[in-house]
Design goal:
heterodimer; A: about 240 residues; alpha/beta; Rossmann fold; six-stranded mixed beta sheet; four-stranded antiparallel beta sheet; about 25% strand; globular; B: about 250 residues; mainly alpha; 2 domains
Chain lengths: ~240, ~250
């Protein structure tokens, strides 16, 4: 990993809600311009980890550095524009596809041009004829593509995605997977992708993080699929957990 | 009205009691409690008002209004338990509503500055403001509860707290104001307002009663707008912390 530049650094990060420990002493690096697949059983703390990076919540203990800058040194709205997040079943706002795409700029009191909107739709594999359609009429896969496009409007350096294909059919899942690879190549963004699908993680992840019960159990490149000695991780990879 | 006639009005309490017992609604205890409480409260208020009117002292008028604001605040705050510091937010709203409306009424000499006018009008305006605050808080907390994902979406895209709850805030303000506006559309056609009816029964000229009622309904419009907007704009920032994090997010997916 010597030639890789870090994009996000977790330093002994813990997160506790009331009496429940959700993340326990997580340390590790996410590399710039790479796809890190975050896998683990439900309740492992994966979504919490993403929300911490986007600043929607703050760690109870430990530090997070984004692009070598402490997360608390960012102005919250600025951090969230640089670290985009697409949450599972991200809501589509009432209105047209264009209105959804224009939302991030509208929040900054700026306007999105029709050309920019069309270009972004093309990037995510939607035809420009979708622009004036009612967003609620889109299929599940199309809505996820729109949610990704909407987040990309802010031109984030880091893109966090939370199980965005979990509710999609195989064809839509393939399209989104290809889209993510294209986005990485086109924009050079760092991607952290939560997935339950081990095959998806193998296929797309440059790096894999395995989380269980709030802890980072294993991390590394593809070699961890064969080299891990952790029995629970092996069982998880084999689909037994 | 004689005390005998007044006692006969208890028939109106007996009817719901009999119906409740017959249909096993289980409302007998509540009905009796409400009846006794209303008799005691109204009699007490009657004697207090007589004392205040006779004394004609601004200190007593002030105390009477303060009492109304405290009682209205304590009642309305129950609906906004989830909002930090809701008691002071409602109290501030009621005080502003009272100051603004009375400044206009007394400052422009629309009504005489006597207890006879100040106290009943204050009672109507503070009471309406309390109902509006309750309606607003009911709707606002429900809107927030059912739109957590949308609020989090706006924040995640770099929005401010105000932008994140803008839709919910506007919906709740509108919803709480609609009953006041709607009731004014049918006023005099469907129902005769309580104050006007009271004046007419008391022997006042119906035209004079109508004039005062118009004054009240116009003032109620201001009360409605001020109450919802003030409670709303004072309340929404408490849903977020200094890092612009939605505090309700603590109850979401791990």
């Amino acid at each position: 990993m010597d030639n890789l530049e870090t994009s996000i650094q977790f330093q002994n990060v813990s997160y506790q809600r009331n009496e429940t420990i959700i993340l326990n002493n997580v340390s590790g690096d996410i590399y710039k311009g790479k796809i890190t697949a975050l896998v683990g059983p439900s309740g492992a703390g994966k979504t919490t980890l993403l929300k911490l990076c986007n600043g929607l919540i703050s760690p109870t203990n430990g530090d997070i550095l984004v692009e070598h800058k402490h997360i608390t040194d960012f102005e919250p709205t600025s951090l969230r524009r640089q670290v985009g997040i697409v949450l599972q079943n991200a809501p589509i706002i009432r209105g047209s596809v264009f209105e959804n795409l224009a939302l991030p700029l509208k929040l900054q009191k700026k306007n999105l041009s029709k050309d920019e909107a069309t270009a972004m739709l093309t990037t995510v594999g939607l035809e420009d004829s979708f622009l004036n359609r009612d967003a609620s009429d889109l299929s599940g896969g199309q809505k996820q593509k729109l949610a990704i496009a909407r987040t990309l409007i802010n031109r984030p350096k880091i893109l966090l995605m939370d199980e965005i294909t979990s509710a999609l059919d195989p064809i839509s899942t393939n399209e989104i997977e290809q889209l993510i690879v294209n986005i990485k190549e086109k924009y050079g963004v760092t991607i952290v992708w939560i997935t339950h699908n081990i095959e998806q993680a193998k296929e797309l992840g440059d790096f894999i993080w395995v989380m269980m019960k709030g802890q980072l159990i294993e991390s590394g490149d593809h070699s961890i699929f064969s080299s891990t000695r952790n029995i629970k991780v092996q069982q998880f990879f084999e689909g037994k957990i | 009205m004689t005390y005998t006639s007044l006692a006969l009005t208890l028939i109106f309490v007996l009817i719901p009691l009999i119906l409740s017992r017959t249909l096993q609604l289980g409302l007998e205890k509540d009905t009796i409690f409400a009846t006794v409480r209303s008799i005691i409260q109204l009699l007490a208020v009657g004697y207090v008002l007589k004392f205040v009117f006779d004394s004609d002292s601004y200190i007593y008028i002030f105390l009477m209004i303060a009492l109304m604001i405290v009682a209205a605040t304590l009642n309305a705050r129950k609906k906004g338990k989830t909002i930090r510091g809701i008691t002071w937010k409602i109290a501030t709203t009621l005080i502003i509503v009272e100051v603004v409306t009375q400044s206009i009424l007394l400052g422009l000499n629309i009504v005489p500055a006597t207890a006879q006018y100040i106290i009943p009008i204050s009672g109507m305006l503070i009471g309406n403001s309390m109902v509006l605050s309750i309606l607003f808080l009911n709707r606002f907390t429900a809107e927030i509860e059912s739109n957590k994902d949308s609020i989090e979406l706006i924040l995640s895209l770099g929005g401010t707290p105000k932008q994140a709850v803008h839709t919910q805030l506007i919906n709740a303000i509108k919803a709480s104001m609609i009953p006041t506006i709607e009731s004014q559309k049918t006023i005099g056609l469907v129902q005769l307002p309580g104050m006007m009816s009271g004046q007419i029964i008391g022997g006042a000229d119906p035209v004079v009663a109508v004039q005062f009622q118009i004054l009240i309904i116009f003032a109620l419009l201001t009360t409605a707008a001020l109450s919802s907007i003030l409670v709303g704009f004072l309340s929404y920032p408490t849903l977020f912390n200094e890092r612009i994090q939605f505090l309700e997010a603590n109850n979401q997916k791990i």
